[in-house]
């Protein structure tokens, strides 16, 4: 299914961004979780460019953080957690996926994807689900990292 371009949404930078999963959970004790894949879909009739940003770029390796998605296609973006120090257990970060119309520099859509590092895959059963949902509140210590999204 293709969606045509809606000039009003593009002009307002509110083009819906389709990405799965909507959050990333890394487990320090489970090496299979250290590499996660974000799939970005382009249901539109025009090509899109994308760029992935992070609030903590030193903690992650993003393979192909920029690229193009052909109309009606998708791309997989591999994200590896690279820092599993005990002090980082429970830390929350965010990835921002910016979408551009191919050949343009103006952001026409964006999506934030929260990420968390948990000590053990068994902990998820003990922690309420709401604990892992993105919260709009920005802590003072995160304000510098969030400022990097503005560039």
Largest sheet: spatial strand order? 2-9-8-4-6
**Which range does the strand content fall in?**
35-45%
Counted by DSSP, the helix tally is 3
CATH superfamily: Immunoglobulins
Please describe the biggest sheet, giving its number of strands, its sense, and whether it closes into a barrel.
Answer: 5 strands, mixed
The mean pLDDT is 78
The CATH topology label is Immunoglobulin-like
* CATH architectural group: Sandwich
Q: Low-confidence stretches at least 5 residues in length (pLDDT < 50)?
A: 125-151
Shape: elongated
Which CATH first-tier class would you pick?
A: Mainly Beta
How far is it from the N-terminal to the C-terminal residue, by CA?
A: 33 Å
Percent range of helical residues: under 10%
Task: Summarize the structure in words.
This protein has helices at 7-11, 123-126, 143-147; strands spanning 18-20, 24-27, 35-41, 48-54, 60-63, 66-69, 74-81, 92-101, 107-118. With 151 residues, it is mainly beta. The protein has a single domain, classed as Immunoglobulins (Immunoglobulin-like, Sandwich). It has a five-stranded mixed β-sheet with strand order 2-9-8-4-6. The N and C termini lie far apart (33 Å).
Topology:
Layout: H1 7-11, E1 18-20, E2 24-27, E3 35-41, E4 48-54, E5 60-63, E6 66-69, E7 74-81, E8 92-101, E9 107-118, H2 123-126, H3 143-147
Parallel strand pairs: 2-9
Antiparallel strand pairs: 1-3, 3-7, 4-6, 4-8, 5-7, 8-9
